[in-house]
Design goal:
8 strands; four-stranded antiparallel beta sheet; single chain; two-stranded antiparallel sheet; about 25% helix; about 160 residues; alpha+beta; binds iron/sulfur cluster
Length: about 160
């Protein structure tokens, strides 16, 4: 997987240095990432989806496991057999049925956040199947964009840095 540096966030001051050329726009009725990607689930993701009334067996694939080195990270979001898409992707509208409760990995896609001391590096996966990457009508990755889309994630990391 090719990834490219996109921005660096100073977790103390919230200053952002970003690639001014990059643009991103998630396209309505696309759903390509919901078909192609395998999504890891954290315990919090499972609990949030269960709040909607689903049972874990309906959407957790207990046969697909994610590891980082020897550390178990979690199970995968289930795919359905007829089109290999996520079980929550509406096959007609290509919209997510649990959008407001979707797992963190879906929210972050196509970005990857990597904490590096008191900084957070933001990379983008240069996946050729995603038409939103460098879309001409896309939004630049500015401080406002990052805080609007991922303010809660940044806040969580920032709290860890300020408490160290
Ligand atoms: S593949 Fe890209 S544009 Fe399409 S739904 Fe996923 S993030 Fe949005």
């Amino acid at each position: 997987m090719e990834k490219r540096w996109m921005a660096t966030i100073d977790l103390e001051t919230l200053e952002v240095r970003a690639d001014p050329e990059f643009r991103f726009k998630c396209l309505d009725n696309c759903g390509k990432c919901c078909e192609v990607l395998e999504i890891p689930l954290r315990d919090e993701d499972i609990a949030r989806i269960e709040e909607l009334g689903y049972n874990a067996w309906e959407f957790v694939d207990y046969e697909k496991l994610f590891y980082r080195g020897d550390k178990f990270l979690g199970y995968a979001l289930k795919k359905r057999p007829f089109d290999d898409a996520c079980v929550f992707l509406d096959p007609d509208t290509k919209r997510c049925r649990i959008y407001s409760h979707r797992p963190l990995a879906c929210r972050l896609y196509p970005f990857i956040f990597v904490r590096n001391g008191k900084k957070m590096e933001v990379y983008v996966r240069m996946d050729s199947f995603c038409p939103g990457i460098n879309h001409p009508n896309g939004e630049p990755v500015t401080r406002e964009f990052l805080l609007k889309e991922y303010g809660d994630v940044i806040k969580e990391y920032r709290a860890k840095v300020l408490n160290e």
